[in-house]
What we know:
Layout: E1 4-8, H1 12-24, E2 28-32, H2 35-45, E3 49-53, H3 61-71, E4 76-80, H4 85-93, E5 98-101, H5 106-128, E6 131-133, E7 137-140, E8 145-148, E9 151-153, H6 157-168, H7 176-183
Parallel strand pairs: 1-2, 1-3, 3-4, 4-5
Antiparallel strand pairs: 6-7, 7-8, 8-9
Amino acid sequence: MPEKILIIEDEKPIAEILRYGLKKAGYDVYTAYRGAEGFQLLLEIRPDLLILDWMLPDIDGVDICRMVTEQINVPIIMLTAKGTMDDKLAGLSAGADDYITKPFDLREVILRVQAILRRMDRVQKNAEEPEKYAGAITLYRAEHRVACHGETVTLTPKEYELLVYMLDNPKRTFTRDQLLEHVGI
Ligand code: CA
């Protein structure tokens, strides 16, 4: 399935160029011309990447950036006509992952988009890698499965939760009550 990219940009010719280039690069592209509409669309389609204009007529791009990072985990490229250091810092501290100054070279935008998506892909793959503990236990988080010396161990959901909780908190002692409270028995 192609990765989804949402563009929020009020200047239609710019949104159009980006849409054209990214579609050609194989992405599924959505566009919005206003901040509120774009934010709504974002929550609906859950894109893999957001390209966000700094100056929008209704909501400031930086504010949208903050709203987005509070709600969902999506990489953001800020787009702006301004190029000063202060703006860049404000954008990055609001949660943007990258920054592109207008006028831009379409090929460069696509390269940056590809780089960010590849990085995200790697992070996700790593998160799904099985984890080894004490040489014997292998935890497959994505599958909710545990193996001991390579053999899958049958656990109830509560037992699984309990084991993961303890693996995540090595060298810590818990009282019975703390454990029961955590797994919600
Ligand atoms: Ca604008």
